[in-house]
Amino acid sequence: MGESDANERTVLRTLLDAHPRMVGLDDLGVAIPDPAAVEFAVTQLASDGLATKLGERVGATRPAVRFRALTPI
Q1: CA distance readout (Å), 29 to 6, 12, 50, 60, 72
Q2: CA distance 32 to 44
Q3: Which of 28, 19, 30 is nearest to 59 (CA)?
């Protein structure tokens, strides 16, 4: 698993833990200090349908929440 995969996993775990709240991009920077890496992870997760981004807020999608219910990560 590469660094970008690890960052996506970290962001997704954070989003799922916060669900149903959306979190700010700056909140994600606590776990991943590189803003570019956070943005890349969010973009990848959104393109995969696992996250949704509204401005500076990010949240887990329903499919991501359902997947976690079926297979805890």
Answers
A1: 14, 13, 19, 17, 23
A2: 15
A3: 19
Global pTM reads 0.91
- What's the rounded Cα separation, in Å, for the pair 40 and 5? 10
Q: Could you read off the pLDDT of 5-25 as tens digits, one per residue? A: 999 999 999 999 999 999 999
Domain map (residue ranges) of the chain: 3-70
The strand order across the sheet containing 57-60 reads 23-24, 57-60, 51-54
Residue with tokens 């976690």: 68
CATH 1.10.10.10, domain 3-70, yes or no: yes
CB-count burial class (<10 Å; 0-12, 13-18, 19+) for 15: buried
- 58: part of which helix (H) or strand (E)? strand 57-60
